[in-house]
Each structure stands twice: as structure tokens, then as C-alpha cells.
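This part of the workshop introduces the protein records we will be handling. A record pairs a protein's sequence with a compact description of its fold. As an example, a complete record with its sequence and its C-alpha cells follows.

_____
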Amino acid sequence: MTVALAKAPVEAPSGTGPRRRRGPRIGLALAAVWLLVVALAVFVPHLLAPGDPLAGVPALKLQPPSAHHWWGTDEVGRDLYTRVVHGAGLTMSTAVLAVAMGVLLGSALGLLAGLAGGIVDVVVMRVVDVLFAVPGILLSLALITVLGAGTAAVAFAVSVGSIAGIARVLRSEVLKVRTSPYVEAAQVSGNRPLRLTLRHVLPNAVTPLLALAALELAAAILSVSALGFLGYGAQPPAPEWGAMVASGRDSLRTAWWLTTVPGLAIVATVLAANRVSLLGGRRLR
């Protein structure tokens, strides 16, 4: 007699079943919204704050946040909200310029070291090691003392601090790509070194550089604001975030909003840039 045995359903081990849908990424959404607001403040500041950031009413100086002045007024009666919105252009443009120069200079060094090899690679990497050994803010301050104050000088000084990391990343990618079969096939086919580099090596090695550049933007915003706080960036009465924090430090007990509001703008922008760049880095892998 054959006995039919009913097979009991086998339960899936814990953790191997279908994944639950993740809830909405609130942090990422908030970061994207904030960066969109910052972009609007950079390109069309008068859309968000139609007032003049340099015009003040002395009779209304050091007014706390209210319905008429959302973020209060400063020591000469200028609306702080208007100044923070218009100051985004100075801070962000300097940071973006610093990252762009750092990517160009670092990419040139990394590409040279990865393609040339030999003694050229050794010399370039020793220069990069020296740059790594010096903290970025100290290197920026040393360059500022030579170049003088100003947004262009700050952008270049901050860019030098990012050259080392960018050069190392691109060099490692170039060394990996240049030994790939398709690159070797293109070389055997008679492609000249310049064409080989621009068409085959560089496009396939630049992907990790995009994620690193996004991370460097957050660091550049912080460095530009720090140098502005020390008085090396845009000079008063220009509305720059770091300089605004510095101008309100003497009135911190009586007018806390002078330092808190631009300080929070810096913190929120740095955190938002980091959050978005980390997501971009995962997708580029």
C-alpha cells in the first residue's frame, strides 16, 4: 500500500523572504528640497528675497525675528533673511569654483601619473603625499597669506586641498582601465596616445571622480565659510555666510540670530550636499 504523504509547506528562513518596501527617504527628500532652494537663491535671489541686501534702516537695528523681518535685522538694520538669501550666491559660487579647479588640477596629476608611470608616477605621488600630510585648512591659510584676500584667492586656496584625493582616485582608475582588453585592442589598432586617452581611458575612469567631486563640494562650502569667518573671503558689506557669522559673534548674547541663522544655513547646505552625494556615489559604483 502506498501512503501519500502530504508535504508540509516549507517556511522560508527569516531574512530571505521578499523585502519590505522601504518607507520614503525623508532625509534625502529634505536634502534635495534644500539644495533646490539654495540653487534658486544662487541664480534668482530676487525671486526669494526682492529686497536690497546692502540697504539698512538704522532705526530698526538688532530687531529680533518677527512677521516683518522673518530672521531679524543686523547691527545696521539690514534684513537678515535677505542677506542670507543673497549670500548663497557668494558662498556657493566660490565653493563650486574651488571644486572645479581642484578637479582639473587633480585630474591632470592623476592622469599624468597613471599614464606615464615610472619616475613620473613616483614624483607625482610624492607631491600628492606632501599635500595629504598638510591639513587642508592650514594649507589654505598659507596660500591666502601669499595671494591675499578675495573670493578668487579663497577658491584657489581651497582647491589645492582637494587635489591630492582627486589625483589618487583618478590614478588608480587609470591604472585599472589602461590594462583592460578594449584599451589594449584600441592601442593595437593604431590609436594615437592622445586619442586613446580622451576616447577610451578618461571616459571610463572618470565615473568615481563624479561622486568624489560631489563630496568635495560639501567640504569646500565648509572651508570657504571658515575662511570667510576669518576675514579672507568677500569683504563687508558683501553678504557672505562665513563673514555674516563673524560679524554677529560680538552680539551673540543680545542678538543670537546674527550668527545662528547663517550658521544653520551653512550646516544645512553641507549636510544636504553630503546626503545627496553619498546616494550618487552608491549608484555610480
Summary: Residues 71-284 form a domain with the MetI-like fold fold (CATH 1.10.3720.10). The chain is about 70% helix and 0% strand. The radius of gyration is 26 Å.
